[in-house]
Write a structure and sequence with these properties.
Number of domains: 2
Bound molecules: NADP nicotinamide-adenine-dinucleotide phosphate
InterPro entries: Precorrin-6x_reduct (IPR003723)
Largest sheet: 6 strands, parallel
Shape: elongated
GO molecular function: precorrin-6A reductase activity
Protein name: Cobalt-precorrin-6A reductase
Pfam family, one: CbiJ
CATH superfamily of the largest domain: NAD(P)-binding Rossmann-like Domain
Pathway: Cofactor biosynthesis; adenosylcobalamin biosynthesis
């Protein structure tokens, strides 16, 4: 294995996730010279957690054509889609733009959660499907599907919602909603206490995967509470995908420097 002493390469990470932040740190540590790492954030969150290393740009590109232009203009050698599994538009744009600009694309996608004995999961395909199911399941809901998804539940007048979001919602909410602004990671003791204090009898979540927000599932299982879980959208086909930042660093080394 020989690594060139100095080869200038540029990686663009589409971020907004814990894995994306770590990947920026991992790539910079693995290639302290010769690699420029830029992370792109959508700008949805008022005070985003910044990547562990490298440069940051914030805001949309203007669709796949805008992203393809950015890749060309900034001489990007590798695009890594480390966005959230439910961020379908940017993921589709990444696949199109990479093809258009002739830049290799790697996806970093954390695995989804899997139920264990004792879980009372109700998988649904969408937030609308979750809203349809809710009235039969409970009346005090912990809703953790993000502030932009609250609108899907706004027509439900009966249940009381505890909506946990990073920033306060600005759009339509169900009439009986209390907002709790908080950002993970969340620990098990805290999640147990939250369910107990608010007498939660149903949890709604996306199948985000990862450890940072998983304790709510354990707390729900222990309390015998049903969980409405929104299935992941299908990712684009044919994109090489890895499951964690360390794997992504290794694959990026191969793709950029032929390091094996
Ligand atoms: P989305 O619906 O897939 O994307 C909508 C638009 O936002 C895209 O077309 C793009 O605008 C812009 N965008 C999204 N991610 C971007 C990025 N990393 N850098 C630059 N522009 C980006 O995305 P979303 O679901 O709203 O998620 C937005 C961000 O929040 C993502 O970075 C994602 O990783 C993070 N996030 C999402 C969720 C979730 O549940 N969806 C949860 C946690 C974190 P242009 O077309 O103008 O380029």
């Amino acid at each position: 294995m020989t690594r060139p002493a100095r080869v200038d390469r540029h990686v663009l990470i589409l971020g907004g996730t814990t894995e994306g932040r770590r990947l920026a740190g991992g790539l910079s540590a693995a290639h302290p010279t010769g690699l420029r790492v830029t992370t792109s954030l959508a700008g949805r969150v008022a005070a985003p957690r910044l990547p562990e290393a490298g440069e940051v740009r914030i805001g949309g590109f203007g669709g796949s054509a805008g992203l393809a232009d950015w890749l060309r203009e900034h001489a990007v050698d590798l695009l890594i889609d480390a966005t959230h599994p439910f961020a379908v538009r940017i993921t589709a744009n990444a696949a199109r733009a990479a093809g258009e600009a002739g830049v290799p694309l790697l996806a970093l996608r954390r695995p989804g959660w899997t139920p264990v004995p004792g879980d009372r999961w109700h998988p649904v395909d969408s937030l609308a499907g979750a809203a349809d199911l809710l009235p039969g399941l409970g009346s005090r809901v912990l809703l953790t599907t993000g502030r932009l998804g609250l609108e899907s539940f706004a027509h439900l007048t009966e249940p009381w919602f505890l909506a946990r979001t990073v920033d306060p919602p600005t759009g339509p909410c169900p009439p009986r909603t209390t907002v709790l602004t908080a950002r993970g990671p969340f620990d098990l003791d805290g999640e147990r206490a939250l369910l107990r204090e608010h007498r939660i009898d149903v949890l709604v979540t996306k199948d985000s995967g990862g450890t940072a927000t998983a304790p709510k599932l354990t707390a729900a299982r222990e309390a015998g509470i049903p969980v409405v879980i929104v299935r992941r959208p299908e990712p684009p086909t044919g994109v090489p995908t890895v499951a964690d930042p360390a794997e992504a660093v290794a694959r990026a080394g191969e793709l950029l420097f032929d390091v094996r």
